[in-house]
Design goal:
single chain; alpha/beta; Rossmann fold; 2 domains; nine-stranded mixed beta sheet; two-stranded antiparallel sheet; 16% strand; transmembrane helix
């Protein structure tokens, strides 16, 4: 473990430096589209919620964090506007029925969203995104609100429009550069349903722009005359719902730093504990050479049978195979000329070459072989191996 101390120290310093740098670095801009009234980030609606009384000064404001049906059921509203600004408004059929009753009683509903969910079929409306630059150029159809110069927005705000509307039930209040509607109204009894094709108009980012604030104010001016505003927080909260168990730690920089510091301390503790409690590694027994034992058993069998000729023939056959594989010699027909070839190919002396050739020719013709003759054959072959290894003979 001592050899790793330097690496552990360097690694600890680097990790500590990284944590300090992460702690002190500036917080990046959060561009998450929350559309929540409490969020001051670019795509929150904090400015809209806190400055809407500049547009509707006589209206009181309340928030609703429950579903539409729960908020409006069994309650009497008069001259009230229900405002929904969210990424998606998945309004159920039951909620829509309650909203219709609410509007028929003389109240207004204002919805700014990219996705109307299931009620698209009920309203017979569809949305699309304009790809051309003209798609982000907007204006109003009402002569009192229409300006000579069209409105233009950054970061793609204003590119959404209604590609299909029920013209028999809707009034077009705003269009883009291609004359496609992006702001429409439905009449329900004494009240109205206002739909605008996207919620980006009411974000902090857009309202900080002079013309963006002007455009948003003109769309909301249709709610004049209402005494109360209900800000829906139910649909915008759904967008931010998360099941991440660590969301509290990563939401606050101080807790995030404490989390990483705890992980770092745990790693140090584990490494220190390993050093203290490492078990003794048992010494493994060396592997036995079973091949050597097998050779001894086979040799013992041949020795007790005393069949010297059989042993000699096997040694010669094995040696011939070695000559064929190593030196590419032809060993089918062995004669007196084989000694010269063996000497030239292997580099051994003439005497040893002639002795080996003699053994190769005579041994297969003998009926029996004495111990001395077997020993002489074995010594000649062993002498061949020693000479070729010491000479460093290479194959041709």
């Amino acid at each position: 473990m001592k050899g790793y101390k330097l690496y552990l120290i360097i690694g600890s310093i680097l990790i500590l430096g990284y944590l300090i740098a992460q702690y002190n670095k500036p917080t990046p801009t959060n561009w998450a589209p929350t559309y929540a009234t409490k969020d001051k980030i670019p795509y929150g609606t904090y400015i809209l919620y806190n400055r809407i009384k500049d547009i509707l000064p006589l209206a009181s404001i309340q928030q609703s964090k429950t579903a539409v049906y729960t908020t409006l059921k069994s309650k009497k509203f008069n001259k009230t506007a229900y405002i929904i600004v969210a990424q998606k408004t998945d309004i159920s059929k039951t909620d829509l029925e309650q909203l219709i009753k609410y509007m028929q009683a003389g109240n207004d509903v204002f919805i700014a969203t990219y996705d109307l969910g299931k009620i698209r079929k009920e309203l017979k409306v569809q949305t699309s995104t304009a790809m051309a630059p003209e798609g982000s150029i907007l204006n109003f159809t009402n002569p009192e609100l229409k300006t000579d110069a069209n409105y233009g927005f950054e970061r793609g705000i204003g590119s959404q429009y209604f590609s299909k509307v029920d013209t028999s039930k809707t009034t077009i209040l705003g269009v883009n550069g291609n004359n496609r509607p992006n702001f429409i109204r439905y009449n329900y009894g004494k009240g109205n349903l206002y739909l605008i094709a996207e919620p980006g108009f009411y974000t902090n980012f857009n309202l900080l722009d002079k013309y963006g604030a002007e455009y948003a104010a003109k769309t909301l001016s249709y709610l004049h005359g209402n005494k109360q505003l209900i800000f829906d927080e139910y649909f915008s909260a759904q967008k931010n719902t998360t099941t991440d168990m660590l969301r509290v730690f990563f939401k606050h920089p101080e807790l995030e730093f404490a989390y990483y510091l705890a992980i770092f301390s745990l790693i140090i503790f584990v490494l220190y504990d390993i050093k203290r409690r490492q078990r003794i590694i048992p010494i493994a027994d060396p592997l036995t050479n079973s091949s050597l034992a097998f050779v001894n058993v086979v040799g013992s069998v041949y020795y007790h049978e005393r069949n010297n000729l059989d042993i000699a023939l096997k040694k010669i056959n094995y040696f011939m195979e070695y000559l064929r594989a190593r030196y590419y010699l032809k060993t089918n027909d062995i004669d007196s000329k084989f000694a010269q070839v063996l000497m030239e190919k292997t580099g051994i002396n003439e005497a040893l070459a002639k002795t080996l050739t003699k053994h190769f020719i005579q041994t297969p013709t003998m009926g029996d072989l004495s111990d001395t003759q077997l020993i002489n054959l074995n010594e000649s072959i062993e002498q061949f191996y020693k000479n070729t290894q010491s000479n460093g003979t290479r194959t041709v």
